[in-house]
Predict the structure.
Amino acid sequence: MKPAIHWPDFGAALIVLAIGVGFLLWAQTYPPKAAEVPVLVAWLTTVLALIDAVARTETALGRALRRVVSAEQVIEWQADGDGEASWRRVASSALWLLAYLAGVALAGFLLATPLYIFLYVKLHGGRSALAGAVTALGTTLGVWIVFQLLFRYPLYPGLLFGGF
Amino acid sequence: MLESTLAALQGLFTPLGVLFLLLGVLVGLVFGVMPGIGGTTAIALLTPLTFTLESSQAMLLMGGIMGAVSTGGSITSILLNTPGNAPNAATCLDGYPLAQQGKAGLAIGAAAGASTIGGIIGIVTLIAVIPVMKSIVLLFGPPEYFVLALMGLAAIAVATGGRFLRGLIAGALGLILAFVGYDAVGGGVRFTLGSNYLWDGIQLVPALTGLFAISEMIALSVSGGTIAKANAGMGIGGVLQGFWQAVVHWKTTLQGSVIGTLIGAVPGLGGTVAAFLAYSGAMQISKNPETFGKGNIEGVIGPEASNNSKDGGALIPTLSFGIPGSAEMAVFLGVLVLHGMQPGPMLLIEHEGVMFSLILALLVSTLFSNVVVLAVARPLALITRIDVHLLVPVVVAVALVGVYALRETLGDVVLAGLFGILGYIMIRFGFPRITLVIALVLGELAERSYHQSLNMSGGDWSIFFTRTPSLVLSILVVGLLLAPAVRTLRRGRRRPATA
């Protein structure tokens, strides 16, 4: 028996609905001319999200809506098995990215980059320390040579070392 | 004209001429490959170098850069789903799936073929229309800009494929994001959450880098393995076969080239809009539109033809009357002025020889950079065989450094990271990223030209249909929206007949 609601997709529709409603309220705080088009788009988003939410339910209306607005074809690539990937692995991958961003903000590119690459390859990728060290040092050296040495782009030094 | 062409050829085939052209091509390819940094930065960076050069040598250097940047950007789009430049983002949509199927060589070859043909068409058009271009471009006012923006937004309906509703929702979210920042009509700032960084709006390059490159790296980090999933080998034959595909699908190549040239010539629209329009156009005329997004070679050919033809198109208003067709051209205007050339109708008359040096450099660099890409396609394609756990942190780091280098703002790096997470969520829940990007690119233009048009007409909406150019464009928009339905109807009629 199919569940009455496909919760992950329904939840995504509800989040968009909240964004639409929130944006609608927010847009109305601006002068009429500045709000005109944003309000229109906010209404559009809200209505579309409502339709999407209903279409994710196993009701007669939901099934009818799905036939009209959601076909089987997809337009862009989706990672193999991504839909079934555990949220733990997804969260871990996102956290590595956020950790790198935090590292760059605090310590700058030249310190955060080798540390991030080494730890990612070793801990997340499960590869050897040597592979991690070579990849980390090679990339950092390459970045430094190309960006800083050749093209004279200053690399962000980090909040701890004078960045702002 | 013949004398100027011969003089430009003589200037090119001197040791110094060849040296500056090659330097331009090399810099263009390198800047094209590096995510986030594009032709604008490359031209800006080398402008001081032209101080001491003769005008014709400076034009060879600049033409070399312009012709090669788009070509370089297509490589990372195909191999890593990381657009080298914003206009290359459309190439990711089918180029990367092809790389995953072990057909990176085929995709790179097709991109090179389409770029070469597109580049030539753009340059030939440039030469042909410079004398009459002023009157054509002056036909475009706010109503036409608005309808052109609508045309791009209408492409959303086509580009969503089967996920129509979620595609529209992603488009609406893209419009919401496009409203963030300075309001060109009202003069205030909107939706910035009190952040000074957001006053300039959502920056396109960090957003694109996040949506395509970073999100893909998150997806790869989750799935593991290698980018190329298929066991099929990637011989050099694939590259040449890909090149040939641009000729086989000549309608797609031609259509992409025309779109690139036309959109490139309209100031303010830019290569990103052109590439996505070319992509949706390719889908419209394809016999297999349902395979777009899954590795259809026409999805590479259309945007790539557009990417290289847009340079010729963008030079038309830049040279004809000093209105830059893109940010890259705005910087290039500075180079012209620096060398004592005042862009405008008299430019071609007063500096015909120098202008032909530029046009020749653009042509040769388009050809040369594609030859270079073809030559190195096979070793480059091996990237798709590297363990993603080694590749992911490297691409993330290089992409974010590139994003930072563009404006030296930490906010851009954070924005790219956040858009990366947003992009992954969109992949996971089936929201097409392409529609968000199209709306993000066009939202501000659509809103501004809408208000300007209504100001012109005193609030009368008929202004969008009473001017001939906007009427023609409006008819095209309706055609674009109706085409999928017409195609479905025609297929429905054919099916019973063949059953």
